[in-house]
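no rush on this but wanted to send it before i forget. theres a chain ive been looking at and ive put its sequence and its fold in token form underneath. please have a look and point out which stretches look like helix strand or loop to you. thanks a lot i owe you, the record is right below:
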Amino acid sequence: MKRTALFALMIGLVFLWGCSSSSANEEAYKQFQSDLCAASSIEMTVDLTASYNEKVLEYKLFFMEDGDKATVEVLSPKLIAGVKAHILPGKDSLEYDGMILDAVELTEDGLTPLSALPAMLECMKNGYVTQIWSEELSGQKIIAIQSPISDEAYLTLWLAKDSMTPLHCEITNADKVVIFCNIAEWTINRG
């Protein structure tokens, strides 16, 4: 009888410990979202891989959001380095220094490699978390979250637990990863 009671107590403590860790992660992520919403601008440099059915494209991109305006600059591949896309809310096309070009979509929702970064940031700021967990990656403690972008797509984001700096992100659509980002540089500007 004593063993059963002790075993039940230990199971209860394990559940409470797990809940408290999850709760702490949720609070840390809510603070991260609050910091993003309060920022005057946000900048990031990413290595982005876009997976189409028949090909995989790789880009190095610089992204800056300032208010409701977002700019994406291609840093590589060299062939299109320096091209800037100005992404405006509600537009399905990208504007390149006055020319408007349609972008090849990765999803039925209209996600493109260049529109993925604004979608990712919007989800980080205002998305609701469906899953949150802790990991350890190369000795670093990580908080990972999943958040829906649309009916078919969701974001998975990995953040350094100590600084809440985004490290990696992927966008999955219909159970296929269509965008994977390594976030090389991340800056939140407070204004």
Q: What stands out?
A: The first strand starts at residue 41 and ends at 51.
